[in-house]
């Protein structure tokens, strides 16, 4: 509910503003320790990224309430946004976007970690699980860039708005595609903020969509084996529907004005 989200936002904002808040029956304030504020910013940013790779990866709709709170906090406390991006880029290099190359002397285990895989006791996580986590984090990022906290001061610009999404998409299309990963990330990104980008960039956006369909999807196909076609097929279907309808649908779970009255 909108009222519940406001409570969450106010509590985080009060904590970061140096006020005392109650948590688990204890009064807590960042002024209790010289590094209190820095610690809270760090842990909070880390927590938001964990929501992306956990909550959002399983429940796509949850990207929007989480993102709108972070967007508002970022506006008032830029340090949280900076640290959030640092955590996000480390956990999901594709959010830069960046495909790390394996350098000489780097072990396979270390390289897999650089690519975003979780490695425990030399065991690498399953590909499906890895893709799900990356998908959740990109969906959260795509939600953040288009949302503003509705009760904030709208005078300034969004601290990390749609222009960053445009940059991400352009840089993504300048990279050589990877099997599985590239198709999934493009689909996630366009499903979540394609509608907002269509409204913001109009004809330039549609030129990019045509480029993806005509030039970039064939390049993804060239590196995709027959067993990895799932994400690519979904991306092709999505592109075809959007280009035929000349419309990108609103994302499922977007927060409507009526949500804030709940």
Automatic annotation (TrEMBL):
Source organism per UniProt: Erithacus rubecula
This protein's superkingdom?
Eukaryota
The similarity annotation says: Belongs to the GLE1 family.
The answer to whether keyword Repeat applies is: no
Arranged from A to Z, the UniProt key words for this protein are: Coiled coil, Cytoplasm, mRNA transport, Nuclear pore complex, Nucleus, Protein transport, Translocation, Transport
Q: Please name the GO terms of the biological process aspect recorded for this protein, alphabetically.
A: poly(A)+ mRNA export from nucleus; protein transport
Matching entries from Pfam families are given as: GLE1
Its localization reads:
Cytoplasm; Nucleus, Nuclear pore complex
PANTHER family assigned? GLE-1-RELATED (PTHR12960), MRNA EXPORT FACTOR GLE1 (PTHR12960:SF0)
Protein name (Swiss-Prot/TrEMBL): mRNA export factor GLE1
Q: What does this protein do?
A: Required for the export of mRNAs containing poly(A) tails from the nucleus into the cytoplasm. May be involved in the terminal step of the mRNA transport through the nuclear pore complex (NPC).
Does Nucleus count among this protein's keywords? yes
GO molecular function terms attached to this record: inositol hexakisphosphate binding; phospholipid binding; translation initiation factor binding
What are its GO cellular component terms?
cytoplasm; nuclear pore cytoplasmic filaments
């Amino acid at each position: 509910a909108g009222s519940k989200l406001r409570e969450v936002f106010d509590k985080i904002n009060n904590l970061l503003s140096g006020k005392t808040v109650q948590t688990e029956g204890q009064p807590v304030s960042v002024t209790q320790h010289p590094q209190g504020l820095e610690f809270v910013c760090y842990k909070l940013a880390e927590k938001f990224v964990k929501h992306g790779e956990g909550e959002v990866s399983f429940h796509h709709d949850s990207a929007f309430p989480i993102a709108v709170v972070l967007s508002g906090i970022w506006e008032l406390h830029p340090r949280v946004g900076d640290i959030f991006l640092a955590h996000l880029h480390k956990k999901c290099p594709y959010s830069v976007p960046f495909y790390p190359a394996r350098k000489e002397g780097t072990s396979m285990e270390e390289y897999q970690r650089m690519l975003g895989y979780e490695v425990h006791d030399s065991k690498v996580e399953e590909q499906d699980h890895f893709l799900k986590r990356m998908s959740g984090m990109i969906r959260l990022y795509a939600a953040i860039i288009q949302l503003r906290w509705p009760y904030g001061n709208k005078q300034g610009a969004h601290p990390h708005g749609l222009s960053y999404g445009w940059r991400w998409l352009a840089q993504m299309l300048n990279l050589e595609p990877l099997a599985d990963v590239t198709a999934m990330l493009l689909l996630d990104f366009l499903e979540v903020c394609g509608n907002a980008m269509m409204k913001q960039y109009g004809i330039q956006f549609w030129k990019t969509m045509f480029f993806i369909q005509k030039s970039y999807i064939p390049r993804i196909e060239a590196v995709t084996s027959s067993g990895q076609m799932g994400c690519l097929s979904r991306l092709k279907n999505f592109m075809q529907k959007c280009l035929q309808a000349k419309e990108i649908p609103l994302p499922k779970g977007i927060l409507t004005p009526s949500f804030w009255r709940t």
